[in-house]
């Protein structure tokens, strides 16, 4: 075929169309807002977490059993919807729920992989969530877990959670854990 001007025009149009068809319009990046609008805040949260595994109304249930009767409960997975309260008593004001799971991920000691959403229900934080993903070895006095994100008032959050067992019933396995959470957010 000869390279007639019509053919060249056709090629040119094809090229244009090809450029337009690139899936580049699903993402839009703009410069971040000025410093005045992007003020980073630090929030400290203090609450108690109630993990009830016994009785008629458990808040955490075992999904899988440990492998090989492992003493470190390696392989166990528990799903929880644990109440979070302002004070240490389970009857104290509820401020949210810890929804997620903890799984035996260590073979030489009890060491959980803990993945949970702290879903707040109190006051202006009602509906806001902090997401925690980390290692929780409950036999250690204080455990630190990263806060890897958040939603609602906690958009862009990151920080850490410190957990200490406040009360533990050896017979039932029920526990109350004190949490201090420090997060940076906007
Ligand atoms: C399970 O127990 C057997 C016998 O004690 C042992 O040989 C094996 O290594 C264990 N397996 C795991 C995965 O712990
Ligand atoms: C919580 O309230 C229930 C019912 O009112 C009561 O039976 C229980 O003793 C209370 N628990 C604590 C720790 O105060
Ligand atoms: C939290 O929000 C839910 C849904 O919007 C609402 O039903 C509930 O009453 C609120 N709770 C509090 C304590 O404000
Ligand atoms: C949480 O912070 C309070 C006040 O600073 C402190 O008394 C408590 O020991 C802390 N607990 C944990 C688990 O970090």
TrEMBL record:
Q: Which GO terms describe its biological process?
A: phenylpropanoid biosynthetic process
Q: Which UniProt keywords apply?
A: Apoplast, Secreted, Signal
Report the main location listed first in the record. Answer: secreted
Coiled-coil segments, which residues?
none
* Pfam families recorded: Dirigent
Q: Does the keyword Electron transport apply?
A: no
For this protein, the record's InterPro entries field holds: Allene_oxi_cyc_Dirigent (IPR044859), Dirigent (IPR004265)
Q: Signal sequence span per UniProt?
A: 1-21
Q: Name one GO cellular component term.
A: apoplast
List locations, semicolon-separated: Secreted, Extracellular space, Apoplast
Assembly notes: Homodimer.
Q: What does this protein do?
A: Dirigent proteins impart stereoselectivity on the phenoxy radical-coupling reaction, yielding optically active lignans from two molecules of coniferyl alcohol in the biosynthesis of lignans, flavonolignans, and alkaloids and thus plays a central role in plant secondary metabolism.
UniProt family annotation: Belongs to the plant dirigent protein family.
Q: What is this protein called?
A: Dirigent protein
């Amino acid at each position: 075929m000869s390279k007639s001007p019509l053919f060249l025009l056709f090629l040119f149009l094809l090229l244009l169309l090809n450029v337009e068809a690139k899936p580049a319009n699903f993402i839009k990046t703009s410069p971040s807002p000025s410093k005045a609008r992007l003020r980073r805040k630090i929030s400290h949260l203090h609450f108690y977490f109630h993990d009830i595994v016994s009785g008629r109304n458990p808040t955490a249930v075992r999904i899988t059993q440990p492998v090989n009767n492992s003493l470190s409960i390696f392989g166990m997975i528990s799903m929880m919807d644990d109440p979070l309260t302002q004070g240490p008593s389970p009857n104290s004001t509820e401020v949210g729920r810890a929804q997620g799971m903890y799984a035996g991920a260590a073979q030489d000691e009890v060491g959980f992989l803990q993945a949970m959403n702290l879903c707040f229900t109190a006051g202006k934080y009602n509906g806001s969530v902090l997401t925690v993903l980390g290692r929780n070895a409950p036999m250690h006095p204080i455990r630190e877990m990263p806060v890897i994100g958040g939603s609602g008032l906690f958009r862009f959050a990151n920080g850490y959670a410190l957990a200490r067992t406040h009360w533990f019933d050896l017979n039932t396995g029920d526990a109350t854990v004190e949490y201090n959470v420090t997060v940076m957010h906007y």
